[in-house]
Structures are given as structure tokens and as C-alpha cells.
Amino acid sequence: MPGLRRIVLDVLKTHEPKLTDLAVKLCALDYVDGVNITVYEIDKSTENIKITIEGMDLQYEPIKEIIESMNGVIHSIDEVAAGKRIIEEVRTPQDRMKY
Q: Distance from CA of residue 18 to its chain's centroid?
């Protein structure tokens, strides 16, 4: 049975280590196919980032351990996808009316 395919995390981290180092370390996990990191808020000593990780049968605990070892704290898990394929979110008419 296929496991987790995508995890989207809201993370607070210090400026060091660099985002590039965090991305490379996460990609070193055998089951990770790709990592996107987006900064959406920054202040004097920290940055709020969104980390999107895709792969086959993702394991949350090792991912969490890497983030924490690199001065990050997971605020929330904002999205997960599991199964044989990833289902992209579909906007409904109700969603369109909000914008």
C-alpha cells in the first residue's frame, strides 16, 4: 500500500543554516524526490518558511529530525497527500467567489 507522497510544512527557523543546506539535507533521504522551500516572512533572527516535500512513502519522523537539527520548528502540517497518485486540489465555484 502506497504511503505519504507529499507533505507541506509550516516551519520557523533561524537564518542559519541556509535554506539551500536544509533543502539538500532533506533531499538526501532515499524516499524524497524533491523539496521546495518558500520564505513567506522574515525578521531579524528568524524566517517563516513553507517546505513542500514529495516522494514515495515519505517518513515524517526523519524529516522532522532533520528540520529540528537545522534550527527549525514545525508549526503545522498544512497538507498531506497519500496513495497511488497525488490528487491536486480543485477550486470549486465557492472558492472562486472568495477572490
A: 16
